[in-house]
Design goal:
Helix content of chain A: 25-40%
Structural class of chain A: alpha+beta
Oligomer: homodimer
Number of strands of chain A: 32
Strand content of chain A: 15-25%
Strand order of the largest sheet of chain A: 1-9-10-11-12-19-16-15-14
Number of domains of chain A: 2
Number of helices of chain A: 18
Distance between the termini of chain A: 21 Å
Chain lengths: 785, 785
């Protein structure tokens, strides 16, 4: 992770303020200020469209197909990929001041401030600008993507003339096939497939709005975008609209005297479908617009705040003693909510809907990092994401058959469900994604206690993945169950035997599938599960090989890993990181160098499989090898650092995870925010410092506060309850915010919790031998000394 | 290997006769009848150009660059590949008979016979054809690619009118940018790069010939082709020539009465260069033409036969008791000679110059299978191929640096020297190619005793490759020297630790480099080698890890291999082979299934590293796992089968290796012949049945005859001598054809050989436990019972 750049934001508890426009940080700020409800995503582009780093208007799962080329092909390589595309841009509002376009690159910018308000759920902007000809105007806009009305975004746009009368022309637009910066792809066919991806089908306008319908060229998806406006201002303004194939435009002309204000509320509605007809889709977005206008601008704002009030009651994490971290944790929670809130049986992508990074794909990190958090903060969003997985089971069965295995093989990366990975050693071979999905299912059932979900959704996913593992592994001559030739989470190691992470997760997958099938015997029978099959899962789980290096006293990440040469970190200058950009895979794979937590993640997710002593030794061993070239690492290292008594280090890692986008630590926040790292922030707090574990025997906490902080408080939903945990230096307080009495454990001791808060002491922290990171790869130290 | 198809050829000792035209076998026959001297290659296309399967005129190392695309790129992936291209076609001679084109697809074909004569080095053709209008002609053509005049091909073309007078027009052409069948590549950019690759630079004609100069569009190579004609026939024929950018054409018009003959000798000269100017290249080919005309047609034929008489004196293998195999072994030897004879410091490709398979690339098999044979049959050709490797050392040093290793990293596949592999797990990771080159160097020095070659060529190659191994491997904590994360010969296993083949070959590479440096201390010092470095090579060799499975009593092909699941051969139907076309790599890599000899090849090349008992057990173990989806396997299995007493099986494998193209066993002979399998035929005879070994302590033989054969005789060059070995059922005869007296060993017993032949008895063969192949993958049994 790179050192903090000069960050573009101020530190405030509930606001993210960009006090002045910084053209160099444009891409990062567009991502951090992206608004989304999980269905619609609008990057934080300026109202007038330019300057921009990357214009972005996304609809969840709306993609175009593109060729996947290979210098040397192979059986089972996917030939076609899926890429999220920029749909009809409905956030554009252009302004002409006496014939001069409002463009911040010209004239004088006296003030430019944008504020993301995490409690209001709005992005506001205030600009004072003087045109090259000397006309001064004040522009204030507020943008929301509604969390309550899924198809709706809205903008309130106000212009005031400051010193002299002026004729204003406001053009509010829908723009399809927007001209984008080049993707820099070296394959011209990919560029071609993604340039002007939308084919116009219909365009209409009425006095105050317009509707555009398009279909993608290859994937055959249809999108409708519609807008409507409410205008108020001095007498005599005029509103007209027009539409052509790729543009809908409402033009408002008004002459304003100094101090007068022109105020426009723009409602935008989106809908897409792979099946619905033009008239159906057209009417759908017009209906959404009608509902939004009925609710009104203030109504939308009120609904938004009420939704968020309810959310933050549970989800807010309070941190005393580090204002920057306090803000970052809230921003992280906000983006996790935005990614999942209204995704509703669609995938949650690695970047949410904040950018085009990773082509908009979803990976294993949604299940491993994001859903366990949503299960505790917004359980319906987690349930829906898992229902999406269930909905793509037919594709996963097909893929398994193609790969010669049984059960389901979920895609390593996808939008719609088909495998889109073009490099199988770090794609298809990473079968652990199937156990990761099963684990998210297991955690969700534990967190919610939702028996119907368990029977209708969880069971089928668990059975399908258990069948995969049973067929992917085999018993060796000594009777051990091996899983050979797969890739674990660490992408600097590939195609290995008995990756400990994979084997432990598969083991749990097999066990939980058998237990769940036993609990829902009739539903399981409908899936063809019988007692023999359940026994074969349990047997494989019981015989699962978990390699251990007796000489070093640690678990090798996979068979033989600890025999490999240790990477020469001393001779690796900082500019070589991330290594994958400067070193061939072959060299990374054959040496001990770790991109991201793998064995350490296994310890976080399967703490039951390690003794405390093993956990300490393993953590120290892998800490010295892990370079964190992936953002999917710091949060995990935070958790296990906290568990092994390295509280200061845990604090450093928590901050790294939380600040990844606010401080652009990975240098690529312009491609979208890092949803998994942000979700991991909550886990670092709750599981790490809170010591929260959740293994089926009940909820337990082992809270510990790092010396530099004076208080941490976090909340969660637990089987229909709302719970809050506060960690203070020498005690912890548990409070049931809502729901029936419950039992939990505090540092192993049972505790009954009802209406009254319970306070329990926290013992002193034992001293532990410090651990070391590879040369130059220690996290930035936040703790004093 | 598929069962024999109805083969298009008759069985004769020295001829390959195609008694009638079979349009379905066109591609295979074009490859088998391809003529080459290692510099020029002409596929066996019909004189008149069509019908064809693939027109082919190749110049060694004349290639075009093409893009190598990746769905997901990576550091160190080559961006540009090299593909052999069809250059100016000089073998076209079209005929018009009274306005009707001579085209075998029309009219009546009364007779069509082609004969490849392995002693004359010619391809002749005799046709009797009646035009749709009823005019009968007899055409006889003889084609040679001169082994003595490297730039020259020539055709003698005779037409006779059979029953009525006819006006004949013969058009003899040079055609550049010939229209080719589509490559079927799914990447249109590749198709584009290779369509019309030649840009015209110059065209000239004179009365009886023409010259064309072109340059490739991307690789910037320049090619000149020129032709000249000698015509004889009844009075009144007329010869004119013309040239345009892509066509040179000499037209001969003659009116023939029945029984009269028109006879044309066409001389074609080729030259290419990356540096020489148009005038220089133009003059070069005209000079070659002048020399050829000075020699004359009969002179070229005489030279060709004399060259081959000399060659066959040593190279001929006689087999009594199997006429088909006798022919096949000669054809195999012929193609190996053609591939290498006049390559002269250019690469010898996997298909020689007989087709475009594998893009015309050279791989490790040239060094492992082909050069050890040439070192004994045509030593200068082997020396030149190794000098080519030396000439690309600068590129290999560069590649090593890019990969983060020291010394030289030779390309897995290339024409000019740059890595062209687009799939690194089965390309760049197959580092064994470097030890294979070193081994070819070692064998060449042993075979020839050429001290100057050792000092000037061998030493540098050995040092460069030893340095690679020293840096690629490392000592583990137990002091063993490991080589992790590489791929051995078997392409159904990849990226493994301590591949036994690789480690044994690297061990020898390190030792021989140290020994050679010690013998040439001053030359070694100039390469920066000092005593410390030599000691570090010897030390690494001494500590080399060679894994052994104590439970099974066999060597695992690589670390952990024998723990993997055995492929389910019983459930794999014949149509699934070759597996790589129907199964993903991931499934092949993680199971015990072997494409081609790997550990067994290690036993062939490093017999000193195995006890006789290990060799037997290993052979039986790997025989049961090897499916021979590669043609680089049967010959090796033949050798080790013979050594372990499986003489019948060795005989079956020898036949499979020898017949690969005559019987199109791999189903892809249309892409070019399998040079390595053909070379392996000689090795199966000499090393397998002859028991020839060559380890620096002197030459030894342990001859054994399979019961079904009554005699095998083979010859070789040995340190300036010509030697012949004849194996009869109960005795072997050694004869020194030329050169000074020598010592050798017969079944371990010393034997002094001078003028008089020596006969020694062969003991009876011990009975051995039969071995088994995977279900359905046994070679076709030739032996009775």
């Amino acid at each position: 992770m790179s050192p903090d750049p000069a960050r573009p934001f101020t530190v405030e508890p509930w606001l993210v303020r960009e006090p002045k426009l910084d053209l160099d940080a444009l891409g990062q700020v567009e991502s951090v200020f992206a608004l989304s409800n999980g269905h619609i995503g609008l990057r934080g582009n300026l109202d007038e469209g330019e300057p921009h780093a990357m214009p972005g208007t996304y609809l969840n799962s709306f993609y175009e197909r593109r060729p996947l080329p290979y210098a040397e092909g192979g059986y089972g390589y996917p030939e076609s990929g899926q890429t999220i595309i920029n749909v009809t841009n409905g956030k554009i509002i252009r302004l002409l001041v006496e014939d001069e376009p409002f463009d911040l690159r010209y004239g004088h910018l006296h003030r430019h401030e944008r504020v993301l308000d995490l409690q209001a759920g709005t992005l506001t902007r205030e600009v004072e600008w003087e045109s090259p000809a000397g006309r001064a105007v004040k522009v204030r806009s507020t943008r929301i993507v509604s969390l309550t009305q899924r198809a709706i975004a809205a903008i309130c746009y106000e212009v005031e003339v400051l010193d002299a009368p002026a004729l204003l022309v406001v053009q509010s637009e829908l723009v399809a096939n927007e001209q984008l910066p080049s993707r820099g792809d070296d394959d011209p066919r990919v560029e071609a497939a993604l340039t002007d991806p939308l084919v116009a089908e219909q365009h209409r306008s009425d006095e105050a709005g317009a509707t555009l319908l398009h279909q993608t060229r290859r994937s055959g998806l249809r999108v409708a975008a519609a807008m409507d406006h409410e205008v108020s201002g001095p007498n005599g303004f005029k509103t007209t609209s027009e539409a052509t194939e790729d543009i809908g435009r409402t033009t408002i002309i008004a002459r304003l005297a100094p101090g007068e204000k022109l105020s426009i509320v723009k409602y935008v509605a989106y809908g897409w479908s792979a099946r619905r007809s033009q008239p159906a889709l057209h009417d759908q977005v017009r209906a959404a617009l009608a509902a939004a206008r009925y609710t009104g601008w203030q109504g939308l704002l009120d609904e938004q705040r009420a939704y968020l009030d309810e959310f933050w009651t549970t989800a807010d994490v309070e941190i005393d003693g580090d204002a920057e971290l306090q803000q970052a944790v809230r921003v992280a929670t906000w983006h996790v909510l935005q990614a999942g809130a209204r995704a509703e049986r669609r995938a949650i992508g690695a970047k949410g809907l904040t950018g085009e990074g990773y082509d908009g794909h979803t990976f294993w990190d949604t299940e491993t990092f994001c859903l366990p958090v949503l299960s505790h903060l917004a359980p319906e969003a987690a349930a829906d994401a898992l229902r999406w997985r269930q909905s793509i089971l037919p594709l996963a069965y097909e893929r398994a058959e193609q790969l010669g295995v049984k059960g389901a093989a979920f895609p390593w990366r996808t939008i719609r469900g088909q495998e889109c990975s073009g490099y199988w050693p770090a794609g298809t071979a990473a079968f652990h994604i199937n156990a990761d999905i099963a684990d998210a299912v297991r955690r969700h059932v534990l967190a919610t206690g939702d028996v119907e979900f368990e029977r209708e959704v969880a069971l089928e996913l668990l059975v399908a993945t258990a069948r995969l593992w049973r067929s992917l592994g085999h018993h060796d001559s000594a009777g051990e169950f091996r899983i050979d030739g797969v890739t674990g989470p660490d992408e600097y190691t590939a195609i290995v035997d008995n990756n400990v992470y994979t084997n432990l997760m598969a083991q749990q997958n097999l066990r939980v599938a058998a237990d769940t099938a036993a609990r829902h015997a009739r539903a399981a029978a409908r899936l063809g599960v019988n007692a023999e099959e359940m026994a074969s899962w349990r047997d494989a789980a019981k015989s699962m090989r978990i390699p251990f290096d007796e000489v070093l006293g640690v678990h090798p990440q996979s068979e033989g890993f600890t025999d490999h040469q240790v990477w020469d970190f001393e001779s690796t200058p900082a500019k070589m990181y991330p290594l994958l950009l400067n070193v061939p895979y072959f060299d990374l794979y054959r040496k001990q160098v770790i991109k991201q937590a793998d064995l350490v993640l296994a310890m976080q997710l399967r703490p039951d499989a390690f003794t405390p002593e093993q956990m300490k030794r393993n953590f120290a061993y892998y800490e010295a090898l892990t370079v964190r070239d992936s953002s999917l690492s710091a949060c995990t290292q935070a958790v296990v650092a906290a568990w092994t008594g390295h509280l200061d280090l845990a604090y450093d890692y928590l901050a790294e995870a939380a600040l990844v986008d606010l401080n652009d630590l990975a240098g690529n926040s312009d491609h979208g925010v890092h949803i998994a790292s942000m979700a991991g922030t909550w886990t670092a707090v709750a599981a790490g410092f809170g010591g929260m574990r959740n293994d089926g025997t009940g909820l337990q906490f082992s809270p510990r506060l790092p010396p530099a902080l004076s208080r941490i408080s976090f909340g969660l939903r637990w089987q229909g309850r709302q719970l809050r945990v506060e960690i203070r230096p020498e005690e912890a307080e548990y409070r049931l915010v809502s729901g029936p009495p419950m039992r939990l454990r505090h540092h192993g001791e049972p505790l009954a919790l009802a209406e009254d808060p319970q306070i329990r002491p926290i013992g002193p922290v034992e001293w532990v031998e410090p651990v070391e990171q590879p040369h130059g790869r220690a996290p930035r130290a936040r703790h004093p000394g």
